[in-house]
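stage 2 :: seqdesign
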């Protein structure tokens, strides 16, 4: 990657992965296309994201079996969405740090560690939410 690829002031520079200029990235439908591309990238390249998806599917299936109430589904949906979004932001931060600082640097490590810690915090919180939301109906069903 040469210096022009890193120059953020170049308004029309092409993105290496898409070769789409900044001018053409605007637009409502284009935004959805790029978002789906990002989701696809996360699924295709991030093992942790796939793990979160698998656990989410298991939680949804358990919730269906337990016939959860609407408020419980809302809490689970927000929790699952929060974990998945945090994992994607972690990937975005790691990718950006790798672009900005391809060599080892203490600040690059700190940024990546903080992003990973955010995912850990979201995942641990989701376990607590899962126990609170799924625990009582599961206990009642198994007794």
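stage 2 :: out
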């Amino acid at each position: 990657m040469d210096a022009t690829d890193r120059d953020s002031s170049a308004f029309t520079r092409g993105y290496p992965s898409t070769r789409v200029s900044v001018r053409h990235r605007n637009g409502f439908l284009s935004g959805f296309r790029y978002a789906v591309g990002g989701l696809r990238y996360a699924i295709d390249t991030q093992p942790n994201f796939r793990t979160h998806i698998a656990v989410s599917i298991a939680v949804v299936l358990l919730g269906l079996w337990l016939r959860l109430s609407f408020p419980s589904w809302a809490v689970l949906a927000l929790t699952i969405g929060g974990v998945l979004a945090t994992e994607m932001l972690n990937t975005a931060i790691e990718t950006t740090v790798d672009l900005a600082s391809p060599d080892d640097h203490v600040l690059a490590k700190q940024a990546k560690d903080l992003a990973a810690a955010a995912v850990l915090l979201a995942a641990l919180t989701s376990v607590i939410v899962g126990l609170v939301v799924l625990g009582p109906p599961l206990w009642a069903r198994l007794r």
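stage 3 :: structure notes
- Residues 1-45 form one domain.
- The radius of gyration is 20 Å.
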